[in-house]
Write a structure and sequence with these properties.
The complex is a heterodimer.
Chain A (H helix, E strand, L loop, with lengths): L6 H17 L2 H9 L6 H10 L17 H14 L5 H13 L4 H11 L5 E4 L16 E3 L2 E10 L6 E8 L5 E7 L5 E5 L9 E10 L1 E2 L10 H33 L1 E2 L2 E2 L4 H30 L4 H27 L10 H13 L4 H17 L1
Chain B lengths: L6 H17 L11 H14 L18 H11 L10 H14 L2 H12 L5 E4 L15 E5 L2 E12 L6 E7 L10 E7 L5 E6 L8 E12 L3 E2 L5 H16 L8 H10 L1 E2 L2 E2 L4 H29 L11 H20 L1 H4 L7 H15 L4 H12 L23
The chains are: A alpha+beta, B alpha+beta.
Bound molecules: flavin-adenine dinucleotide.
Cofactor (chain B): FAD
GO molecular function (chain B): flavin adenine dinucleotide binding; oxidoreductase activity, acting on the CH-CH group of donors
Organism (chain B): OM182 bacterium MED-G24
Chain lengths: ~375, ~400
């Protein structure tokens, strides 16, 4: 049994912690929150220089060819630091989608994404509800040209390229298409969300050149698989954020006095913190399950991803809600950092479809398994 | 990152599996009338074949196995519904305490019979005045020549009615603060003056007892640890208690709820088609898997020769409540069928429901487990204790 990260992976974690606490402390997230920047481009450039964007990209395409476990480690630490950079969009989503392509798109975009020459994003949403094929009808491709509108795209203002879920106008098949966002006919409309440390925009496409990722259609163009894989990485971000929130709450409780003693000495607070710890341990163990499935491309991936995702969303929610509660009035102020995590928790919980959709998927996987 | 055994682990697992396939009897857990006989016979079979108490030294009936091997065998054994309950206290709690504090002669006399299942032990700790606050116990021990004379009452003593021996914490000096005046012994349950009276639980069963001591004489050489040092010895026992109890939710697990939700009809559709039901099931799946993989993390630490972290302390807390919730859910799905106790198969849920509260109390209640996580894992301050440093006989009690 070897259900832990390796010594090398833990070394990578130490480097990530060192870099992020130095270059991307919470003050950077706050700078983006309070200012006009779309993201911390200085931190992003350093991340690119460190090679993080190339982590899981094969060497043949300019990457380091590490596995996805290294990416899980980075995701957890990025989640902990709330670094306001387009890492998740560009790496877990766009790079992963393009890496899975069997067309020229792969050779065209993957090396550039790997070295951070371009930033990618993924455009899925059109209407309210989880990003499922039956909710994707408004974007169509005719003769290699895309028209329609996509909504709530994380890093939509920042990205140079997008992977767009759209339908072939003739067959009606759903597929993923690579689009150069510098093309004529692309419109960007900034959207304000609950978490202003992450950029969001709607994108409109008017006859924009679009290249299919897959030469053949089927399985909604790999959409499900893309979401499952990304869900594991997002779960690690959630885990990191949840743990940061617990630590913040614990530190505050130890230092804040009420009725002549630290509030950390009162059972109502102690038990809250203990329950946060429990939720995090469950989420961590399930995230490892997801990491294993992701790294080994196990057939259990859809179930493992859902398990990790549900646990991590729950842990992040509990930890960020209770972190504010434990801070009392201070936690409700703009000035304290509790709300940064509270915002991020809700954003991450719904950005790939919400908790209820993942629970539904989880049980569906078990039903299918046991029927077989 | 993987779930794979190393080569040595795999070959050990294969051996364990083969032996279990050939030798494990068919049985239905700890809930049959003959469970004690079956448990003893099974323990003896393991002992004779070298599969008992694996991590113990060979001279005491073990096999000198690594912690990983012990875990592998336990996992494989758990696939069979074998009764092992009667030995949890003796092997899991009394034995480590004996190993740490008993004389060589005593270890040679008692440990092999624990391993072979010939002798069953019970834990005489809790009292009417001392449960969560164990150190508030009052059973009195007074030195008399080479013996101690013990008077008082224990309560909730699981298996006292079929136990041969017991581990016992007593108060030897009530004028000291409560943790300081305690002394620890083991004793023969057939000693004169020991009286065991069953207590009927809410389930109607009687697994635990009151145990009365009237001028019971215990030889001084059955004292474990120094006079007045009983608390330290008790902590050795209690630290092993959590490991022995573990996290197992028994029969009320995710699969039970999932299966029933697939069978029971809710408004003309199987209950499992309901989104609310699915959400509930998914929650349980995540918790159950979370515990399972937490175990895998601990086992990985053992595999690497490291000490597992504190993450396992969440097990009992999560599993006990979940078993209760699942039993309750199953009854809700079945409605009146679920609460009627005359149907052999379906009353299992009602029986589990009536048994479940015990797990949330035994071996440290939910609240005490949360305190342990808060204090020992998260480093938060202890609760205020008004009895700290106060001579025990001056501490306020609930007695009117
Ligand atoms: C099925 C079963 C088997 C058992 N077997 C054995 C056995 O074999 N040997 C043995 O010695 N004992 C045994 N016990 C006893 C068990 O250890 C005690 O019941 C347990 O420690 C709780 O003590 P209590 O019953 O006195 O409850 P109390 O300690 O009176 O607790 C009552 C309530 O108060 C809460 N509480 C107490 N202290 C605190 C605190 N500091 N902070 C917050 N809340 C608190 C508890 O959580 C609980 O909810 C068994 C119990 C059960 C239910």
């Amino acid at each position: 049994m070897n259900f832990e990260f390796s010594a090398e992976q833990n070394l990578l974690r130490e480097q990530a912690v060192g870099f992020l606490s130095d270059r991307a402390p919470l003050s950077v997230a706050r700078r983006v929150l309070d200012g006009d920047e779309t993201h911390a481009s200085d931190v992003w450039q350093e991340i690119v220089n460190l090679g993080w964007t190339a982590t899981a990209v094969p060497e043949s395409h300019g990457g380091f060819g590490f596995g996805h476990l290294e990416l899980c480690v980075l995701a957890e630490e990025l989640g902990r630091s709330l670094a306001p950079v387009p890492f998740s969009s560009s790496v877990y989503l766009a790079t992963e989608a393009v890496a899975g392509a069997d067309s020229l798109v792969r050779d065209d975009w993957l090396p550039r994404l790997a070295v951070g020459e371009v930033i990618g994003c993924v455009a899925l949403y059109e209407v309210t509800g989880a990003p499922k094929p039956d909710r994707m009808k408004g974007c169509t491709v005719t003769d290699g040209r895309l028209s329609g509108r996509k909504r709530w795209i994380t890093d939509g203002d920042i990205a140079d390229m997008a992977v767009v879920a759209a339908r072939d106008a003739v067959t009606g098949d759903l597929g993923l298409y690579a689009v150069d966002l510098g093309s004529d006919g692309v419109g960007r409309f900034t959207v304000e969300t609950i978490d202003p440390t992450r950029n969001h925009a709607d994108l409109s496409f008017d006859n924009v050149p679009a290249s299919p990722l897959m030469t053949s259609t089927g399985e909604a163009g790999g959409l499900r698989r893309l979401l499952d894989r990304a869900a594991v990485l997002f779960a690690f971000e959630q885990l990191g954020g949840a743990e940061a929130s617990l630590n913040m709450a614990r530190d505050y409780a130890l230092g804040r006095y009420a009725f002549g003693r630290p509030i950390a000495g009162y059972q109502a607070i102690k038990h809250k913190l203990a329950r946060m710890y429990v939720a995090i341990q469950l989420a961590r163990s399930n995230c490892y399950y997801g990491a294993w499935a992701l790294a080994t491309d196990a057939p259990e991936l859809p179930l493992a991803a859902a398990t990790a995702r549900v646990s991590a969303s729950q842990a992040y929610r509990e930890c960020t809600e209770e972190n504010i509660q434990i801070h009392g009035g201070m936690g409700f102020t703009w000035e304290f950092d509790c709300h940064l995590f509270y915002r991020r928790a809700k954003l991450l919980s719904v950005n790939l479809g919400g908790e209820y959709d993942w629970k539904h998927q989880l049980i569906s996987c078990i039903e299918a398994d046991q029927a077989a | 990152m993987d779930f794979d055994d190393t080569l040595e682990e795999a070959s050990f697992r294969a051996q364990a599996r083969t032996w279990l396939t050939e030798n494990a009897p068919d049985h239905e857990g700890d809930h049959t009338d003959d469970f004690l006989d079956v448990a003893k016979a099974w323990q003896k079979a393991k002992y004779d074949a070298g599969w008992a108490c694996l991590s113990w030294p060979k001279e005491w009936g073990g096999r000198d196995a690594t912690p990983v091997e012990a875990k592998i065998f336990a996992d494989e054994e758990a696939r069979y519904k074998l009764p092992v309950g009667p030995f949890l206290i003796g092997q899991g709690m009394a034995a480590p305490t004996m190993m740490a504090y008993a004389s060589e002669e005593q270890k040679a006399r008692y440990l092999p019979k624990l391993a072979s299942g010939e002798e069953v032990w019970c834990q005489l700790f809790s009292e009417p005045a001392g449960g969560s606050d164990l150190a508030a116990l009052r059973t009195r021990s007074v030195r008399d020549g080479d013996d101690w004379v013990v008077n008082g009452q224990k309560i909730w003593t699981s298996g006292a009615h079929y136990s041969d021996l017991g581990i016992l914490v007593t108060r030897s000096d009530p004028s000291l603060p409560k943790h300081m005046g305690l002394t620890y012994f083991f004793l023969d349950m057939r000693s004169a003056g020991v009286e065991v009276k069953p207590i009927k639980q809410i389930s109607g069963q009687s697994n635990f007892n009151e145990v009365y001591f009237t001028d019971v004489r215990i030889p001084d050489n059955q004292r474990l640890g120094a006079v007045g040092d009983g608390w330290r010895v008790a902590l050795t026992t209690l630290m092993n208690e959590r490991a022995a109890i573990g996290g197992g939710g028994g029969t009320m697990n995710f699969q039970t709820a999932f299966d029933l939700a697939g069978e029971v009809d809710l408004d003309g559709q199987p209950a499992i088609t309901d989104r609310g039901v699915r959400g509930q099931l998914a929650d349980w799946y995540c918790k159950e898997k979370g515990l399972e993989f937490t175990g895998a993390r601990s086992q990985s630490a053992l595999s690497r020769g490291e000490t597992p972290g504190p993450e396992n302390s969440i097990g009992k807390l999560v599993a006990a409540k979940q078993a209760q919730d699942i039993a309750s859910f199953c009854i809700e799905l079945l409605g009146m069928t679920g609460v009627s106790m005359d149907h052999e198969e379906l009353s299992a849920y009602a029986e589990a429901y009536l048994g479940a509260p015990g797990s949330r109390i035994a071996g440290g209640s939910d609240e005490i487990m949360l305190n342990i996580i808060a204090e020992r894992v998260l480093g938060l301050p202890q609760d205020i204790r008004v009895d700290k440093g106060v001579p025990f006989n001056e501490v306020p009690t609930g007695a009117k």
